[in-house]
Amino acid sequence: MEKRVRKYEEGKIETEKPSF
Question: Any idea what DSSP says for residue 10?
Fold first, then answer.
């Protein structure tokens, strides 16, 4: 579950600040 939350947080950051 921790890995899932980490991926969700990373996705949120990417969605909030897309760098691509």
Answer: H
The pTM assigned to this predicted structure is 0.17
- Express each pLDDT in 1-20 by its tens digit: 667 777 777 777 666 666 65
3-state secondary structure of 20: coil
Specify burial of residue 15 (Cβ count, 10 A radius: 0-12, 13-18, 19+).
exposed
CA dist., res. 10 & res. 19, Å (int): 12
| Other residues' Cβ atoms within 10 Å of the Cβ of residue 5 | 9
CA 9/CA 18 separation, integer angstroms: 13
